[in-house]
């Protein structure tokens, strides 16, 4: 049997390009969850110079955040230092419950999705990152790990924002 090397190279290139196009199509969603300094239902990205305090959040393989509940005052800007103390990838995503559930469905379709949003951080085992966020509205801001299976296992928490 004789193979056409040129045809095989073209097919290989086509397959590689198709795979990367799919990754870009599903990968870096914009979703309107607080880019730049625009205000959203959960507040807006914070300015480092205005951070009033730092809260360290640990993510572990028992599918829990520690602490899972945080109290802030309306208008306060927090720096979350987020640490993955587990052996699998975890994330912390801020949002309304509705936004998080919608994002969870996207993560099921594209589990290797990369985040480039100020209210989200995805971390490899042993790594740490940060989120700086200003909580402009009273109420509850939810956070969760939306890696497939993690939310369902209970990996979620809440920021209670008290009125000024």
Which short descriptors sum up this protein?
alpha+beta; metal-binding; five-stranded mixed β-sheet; 164 residues
Strand content: 25-35%
Structural class: alpha+beta
CATH superfamily: Cupredoxins -  blue copper proteins
- Tell me about the largest β-sheet: 5 strands, mixed
- Helix-strand sequence: HEEEEEEHEEEE
Tally of individual helices: 2
What does this molecule look like?
22% of the residues lie in helices and 34% in strands. By secondary structure, the chain is an alpha+beta fold. The chain has a single domain, classed as Cupredoxins -  blue copper proteins (Immunoglobulin-like), CATH 2.60.40.420. The strands form two sheets. A five-stranded mixed beta sheet has the order 1-8-5-2-3, with no helix packed on it. It has a five-stranded mixed beta sheet with strand order 4-10-9-6-7, with helices on one face. It is globular, with a radius of gyration of 19 Å. The termini are far apart. About 16% of the residues have low confidence.
């Amino acid at each position: 049997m004789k193979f056409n090397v040129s045809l095989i190279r073209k097919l290989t290139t086509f397959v590689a390009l198709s795979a990367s196009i799919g990754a870009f199509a599903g990968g870096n969603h914009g979703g309107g969850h607080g880019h730049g300094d625009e205000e959203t239902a959960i507040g807006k990205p914070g300015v480092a110079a205005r951070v009033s305090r730092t809260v360290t959040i640990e993510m572990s393989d028992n599918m829990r955040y520690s602490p899972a509940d945080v109290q802030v005052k309306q208008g306060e800007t927090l720096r979350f230092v987020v640490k993955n103390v587990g052996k699998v990838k975890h994330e912390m995503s801020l949002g309304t419950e509705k936004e998080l559930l919608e994002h969870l469905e996207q993560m099921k379709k594209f589990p290797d999705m990369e985040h480039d949003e100020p209210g989200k951080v995805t971390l490899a085992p042993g790594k740490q990152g940060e989120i700086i966020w200003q909580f402009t509205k009273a109420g509850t801001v939810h956070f969760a790990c939306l890696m497939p299976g993690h939310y369902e296992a209970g990996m979620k928490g809440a920021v209670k924002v008290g009125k000024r």
